[in-house]
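Input:
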Amino acid sequence: MKKIPVIFISRLIAFFFLTVLIISQVSGQEEPVAVNLKFSTWKYADGTRTLVARITSTNDSGEVPAEGLDVNFFNPSEKEENFIASIKTGPDGKAVLTLQSSSKLISGPDGIMKFVCRFDGTPKFEASEADVAVKDARISIGFAEIDSVRKITCQGVMINEKGEEVPLANMDVYLFVPRMFSMQKIVDGWLEEDGEGESDFPADLVGDSAGVVKIYARIEENADFGNLEAVAETNWALKKHGDNPEVPTRELWTPIAPLWMIITLIIMLAGVWGHYLYAIIQLILINRAGKVKKENSE
Amino acid sequence: MSSNKHTDTSAMLQEFAPQLNRPGTKSWIWMILLTILVLLGIYALIMQIAHGHIITGMRDNVVWGIYIVNFIFFMGVSYAGALIGGSLHLFRVKWRKPIIRIAELIAIIALLIGPLYILLCIGRLDRLPNLALFGRIQSPITWDVIAISTDIFGCIIFLYLSVLRDIALLRDYEGLNIAPWRKKLYRILALNYRGLPEQQERLKRATDIMAAMVIAIAIIVYSVLAWIFSVTLQPGWHSTIFGPYFVIAAVYSGTGVMIVIMYIYRKIYHLENYITQKHFVNIGVIMLVLAAFYGYFTFSEYLTKWYGSEKNDEILIKVLFDRYYWAFVISNYIGVLMPLIVIGFRRLRTIPIITITAVVVIIALWLNRYLIVVPTLESPYLPIQDNRTDWIHYTGTWVEWVLTLGGIAAFMLFFTLATRLVPVIHVSGEDEVSPLISVKNEKVPEE
Amino acid sequence: MSEKINKDNPGSSRRKFLKFGLISGAGAVAGGSLFPSCTDESGGETVKVLTTDGKIVEVPKASVKTSRQLIQESKQGIPGRKFVMVIDLAKCKNARKCVDKCQEGHHLPSHQEYMRVYLLQDSDKTAPYWFPKPCFHCDNPLCVSVCPVGATFKRSDGIVLVDNERCIGCKFCMTGCPYSARIFAWEHETVFETGVVYNPENSVPHREGTVSKCVFCADRLDEGKLPHCVIACPMGVIYFGDVNEDSVTNGDETVKFSELILKRSGYRYLESLGTRPNVYYLPPVNRQFPIERGFDGLDESIQERYKDTPYVKNRTTS
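Output:
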């Protein structure tokens, strides 16, 4: 008597779970995945500023960039959000908004500009938001030959709340050169009290075939100023080997064989097959001699 | 005198004609048996093409196995035939007549079987023309392809020159009971040879030149094959003496094969008067000398490796003595000592014992080739770290053994067919009749 | 569009069709392909290609080059470059992510590896170490010298590639390589049936009866991306770069190649053989992990590989 309700209830529960399972499969409802949103800002020597939002999601194989998502950028003041633009993320998961030096950006009384990026979420990905607050600053890079010693010079200025340029003091600046896959750091430098810094030009730096190299100066991930970058080009670097068209050499592993091999082979083959030819000629003459005799004797 | 020669030759022809007649039942059975073995080999080949080379024992480290061993072996036998045949002819060795044909036939037939084994080893047979289209001169395999093609051509010409007079005799001999197409074949192949002085002179010159060529080619071609191994960096292969070592081992194995074939033909066609004990002893002496050389080279190889005890050489020697102990003993001890003892002692120089020694020599040298190819590949510079035993150690599978048997059967089959076409003993006399070929029923002189 | 691949008995006519090389391995040859070119919505023909991420996508036939063109182009090296790899043995803990990613990116069957990790110990008293070994792309490549048909070739940027269309499968190159870098396709594997256009620069699809090996992911280099193994390594063990630029990177840090080798005393494996390899090793000094970590979480079958090494033997007896 008691068994029947138990069996009935267990069947009901099973049925319920099954239904939920089926419904969830049929409707294709999936939980939106959490995303990682990294927001940073870059200021360049010519005054342009970029806002970079990178969206990735984490799965079993690691971080995967999320492409094609709309990111909204804002430059909020006390009162308003001030929507700037909406950019779609690219294949690398980055949405980059470029602001020209002429753009009017809203900054607070202490000279700090706020930026916000927001991703509103899709059925697949959760919404996310990030913000960054920086003061305006700028660095520049140049080259100078002082006392016949080649140097790289760097200057940094900060734009205060009054709009004046003030030297950027005691900042770590790294110098990079672009390489095939990445940027290579060549100098760990800093700006002195007066916002100026210099470093010897590395004597063993390799450029392109003409010795031209681009050098990037960067202040990275600074709490106050964000990222600052400046770039300049010079032909002081060492010339790079290998840009000249290759003269095909004759080696064991090249398409064309060493000359001595070819000559030896020809001589040997000619010698051997020459003898074969002689033997064959003898055979032909034997045949001919026999025929003649046959004809003569008939 | 010319009538004597004529009588002698025609008497010989009478004796050998039966060989060339229509085959009897025994012959048919023999040929069918061989054909069955060859067909089994073809079946194994089809299986290999269908399933891929995975059904052989070869894997990523031991990429060359029994097929290459057979290739080297058959090529070695071929070059031995060429060398012996050429030398016997060039030096006008008095007792060469009965056995020189065997040497020439070995040269060409083994040369046809050997390259088949290379083809078995090639992964993409459908791309074989690439060797001709895109051949690279820097590659030892290209050298080998050129060399083997040259050698095949040379051996055919040499055989043809040697056989020409016999074919002319057969063409003229009335007592042959053969099919009309064969008679026609003989007529065409005889090239109107009538024994004219001019023809004799030309033939002699051509044969002398080809004999010299064939000796030179045999040495060069087999050295090229040796260099395929010795130019690589593999421990155990990268040896400076591989060229001469291979040539010596090749001729050594060839003498063994020659003795076995001499024995078989002697038995089947009752050629006791022609292939005498003297022949066996003489070839046996050549075998002894070569055994000594072979032992010398092998000892030199292993002494150098063992004494210097470079790390990879040590590993190789360890593999040889651990895994291949008996093969090593048979190949390098018994294979060297047995001929030395058997031929060295007069008492033991009987035909059966010499033949048994020849068989042992053949096996020993096949094992020697195996020990050259496989253990080296099993002990590369970077140790094989794998969990599959068939990737660590090489074991020949049924496919490879069946194809080995098939190749041997094909060799014997071609030989049988060849001796149905031409006499197995050099019949035509001229003034080069050997004093050993005596009148029938006369006792063969001792020594 | 997925194709059901008939991987049943070997006697089936489909496999025989493949065996005799009548398929070009690409959808590019209409009518001769196991996977007939599909048509997309617009009605144009499409073919399958392998992306540099190891994925197979279908693209319009007109937008990709044929196999023949790709082979021809693969013989040209990237101008001005000379690629080099540096492997830091001090950081390797046999995570095998390099192996896995390489197999994934090149659609290799699980038992075949272009990048192999050995457990080496140079002598009794010296330290054992994990040794990842790709192809070294030597400057004096014996494998290239001995190839009778020129199916393997060295480019101006140092990379040695294999042309699977020309390879006759003689395996001479495999005996020529002293580092056991090459593998052979002994049988037909289902992973070969990707149907993509063949490109020697990524060595996909592999073909039965031919040789293949690590290609330094030449197709990825064309796009300025690092090879799979470099990115996959969680410890940053593998550095890759251009000797002419004197720079190598492991994805995180970029260093001056000459300085790295000088400072860390880099060397080449079996230098005395004279092959002039282009992969340098940094000796396992100041190890980040004890050797034991290399066995953590390792599959049984892979653990068995090392059972004959002196290290494992001593470990079990002591």
